[in-house]
Amino acid sequence: MVSSKQLTFSYSPLKKFTFPDLHCNDREALLILGQSGTGKTTLLHLLALLLQPESGEIRLNEQSLQNLSAAEAARIRAKELGIIYQRAHFVSSLNVLDNILLANYLADKKQDKNKAAFLADQLGFAEHLFKKIHQLSQGEQQRVSIARALMNDPATILADEPTASLDDINCRKVVALLKNQSASIGASLIVVTHDQRLKDEFSNQVSL
Amino acid sequence: MNLLKISWANLKEKKLNSFLSGLLLTLGIGIISLLLLLNKQLDEQFKRNIRGIDMVVGAKGSPLQLILSSIYQIDAPTGNVPLAEVNKLRKNPFVKAVIPLSMGDNYRGFRIVGTTPQYVTHFEATVADGQLFSAALEVTLGSKVAEASGLKVGDTFASAHGLDEEGEAHGEKEYKVVGIFEPNGSVVDQLVLTDLSSVWAIHEHEEEARSEDQVLPGELTSGEANEREVTSALIQFRSPMGLVALPRQINANTSMQAALPSIEINRLFSLLGVGIDTLRALALVIMLIAGVSVFVSLYNSLKDRKYEMALMLSMGATRTRLFLMLLLEGLFLALLGYFSGIVLSRVGLWLFSRAAEQDLHYSLSQFGILHEEFYLLGGALLLGVLAAALPSLGIYRLNISRTLAED
After folding, report:
1. In a domain, B132, yes or no
2. B1·A105 Cβ contact <8 A
3. Does B313 share its domain with B360?
4. Residue B322: closest CA among chain A residues belongs to which residue?
5. Residue A99 is part of a domain; what is its CATH number?
6. pTM, whole model, 2 decimals?
7. How far is B342 from chain A (nearest CA, A)?
8. Which domain covers residue B401, as residue numbers?
9. Which residue of A100, A105, A112, A115 to mutate against B (max B Cβ within 10 Å)?
10. Interface of B with A (CB under 8 A)
11. Is residue B329 part of a domain?
12. Does the residue B346 lie in any domain?
């Protein structure tokens, strides 16, 4: 479960963001809608502990995440958060499987090859496991990044513009995928986007 | 999956860059290693043969040439000196031993040296098969000569004139093999040793079949009994006091010159030293450039991999862990460069050795690791780590959020 209260952040005295309070239970999904420039990515990065808020509080499973050191933040990020970026980033020198296992490795967890294979199967890219990332299509790469986000059974999954470059059919497919997968591991799902098509897919919504 | 695997995968990804850095390191280390190997072996060989010989007397000319020809059997002798003058030295109170040498013929490129049994005991050579020469025209072969020629005890052969096999053959009188030496590690291995008188015996006959003006310099002529000549003589002193007056006396008052081995060899090495120092400087420059190459390669690669680094940091990697991963890349390159450099230097040594064997019958084929090469390893690793550390420090300044947001 994730919640935030009175979060604010400013890049400079002129560029200050104040965010609405958020709340999302386990197995539920929250949609954060906003046009460009409303601070969507900033909010996501705050929730992902990549940025420290100027004021306000984030709570994860009733634990307050205020004033964490960089190392603590990194540890929590590795174990409790799964982040899916808008443009998939991978380690280009490793193959698909190793990129997924990287999530385990960097969280100091045991590398679970079976789980990776299972997720690959579920998400439909099992035959590409030993290929290099650049050999996969964009859609396949996105599904790989979803699998990677799930590897550590995180408490929260954060998705940044997951449907931005997809057509209507694939857009719905990806949303369904995200909801199912996060529900199946008992995580909260937070999607940040400007894509109006997703308005109908989420009951829990917030606008920036 | 671990740091090693990721570092290695990154190196493989940038094949050309890694290849260039590796190649430069290999070259630099190869040259330094080769110089170390050659230096050690040349040093050993030169020292081994010069041990216990205080002075060499022979015909006037270049002292270095006298030393090279009489001790190392390289280069042509400077001429001949009367045996009587050499024998006079035996009476000198400072002189302990006089070992006369006569040279001028060869068998299949291996020199035939007429001398006394003292030569054999000086070089601590022992007979493996058969016995030491005693009468004229009896020879004992060095181990390499026996191996190369296939001659055995009891065989006879005709020598060729001069120092290379193409010389005119002395057909009438033949040498007889009475013994073969054990491998000795000294110049004896590559010589055919015989009694001093043999060389006169061979040429006596020849004299009658040839006119005077066909006599080559350095060639031994038999002449009459008291006009017998030798090529040179190795001298041992009874006390170092001999060095004080004797050489000067010989140079000024006799038809011979006295050369001091240690002085001439030091001079030779200092001449060679200029070449070796230049090569060493060159090798160090190459290694520095290798370091620069590693640096540039990693620097560029990091610029490209900015997102990957930010990604891994966002996934929970600590900055120090990523810093170590980058250092490992430099270390791998250094290790690879070191090992291929060591292999390269041995190949180079093998090539040198073949040439030396063919022309000079000296073998330079010790391929073991020298302890200086461990220092070289340390140097290479240090270079790799330093060259990698500089660009890798950028990890500590990476702004994760901004990098990930910049798509």
Report:
1. yes
2. yes
3. yes
4. A106
5. 3.40.50.300
6. 0.77
7. 29
8. 3-46+272-405
9. A105
10. 1-2, 5-6, 9-10, 12-13, 305, 307-308, 310-318, 400-401, 404-405, 407
11. yes
12. yes
The string of pLDDT tens digits covering residues B159-195 is: 888 777 666 776 677 889 999 999 888 889 899 999 9
Instruction: For residue range A41-64, list pLDDT tens digits in order.
Output: 899 999 999 888 888 899 988 888
C-beta neighbour count of A43 within 10 angstroms: 27
**Dihedral pair phi/psi, residue B389, rounded to 5°:** -65, -40
- Domain count within chain B: 2
Hey, what are B296's tokens? 């540039």
Residue A89 has its nearest CB partner, among B10, B311, B317, at B311
Closest CA to B364 of B2, B46, B131, B42: B42
Residue A55 lies in domain: 2-207
- Distance from CA of residue B256 to its chain's centroid? 30
Place of tokens 């790469």: A141
- Outline where DSSP puts E strands in B135-289: 138-141, 156-157, 160-161, 175-181, 192-195, 229-230, 232-237, 256-259
Q: Any residues with CB less than 8 A from the CB of A166 and at least 6 apart, and which?
A: A139, A174
Pick from B210, B235, B259: which residue ends a domain?
Answer: B259
| B124 SS3 class | coil
- As given in the structure block, the two tokens for residue B171 are 């057909």
User: Could you say which of B259, B289, B309 is where a domain stops?
Assistant: B259
pLDDT at B235 over 50: yes
How many H helices and E strands in chain B? 13, 13
Give the residues across from A188 on adjacent strands.
Answer: A156
Q: How many domains does chain A have?
A: 1
B248 and B307 share one domain: no
Residue B224 has pLDDT above 70, yes or no: no
**From A91, A98, A108, residue closest to B308, measured CB to CB:** A91
CB contact under 8 A, B401 and A102: no
Q: SS3 of B380, please?
A: helix
Chain A environment of B9 (Cβ under 8 Å): 91, 93-94, 98
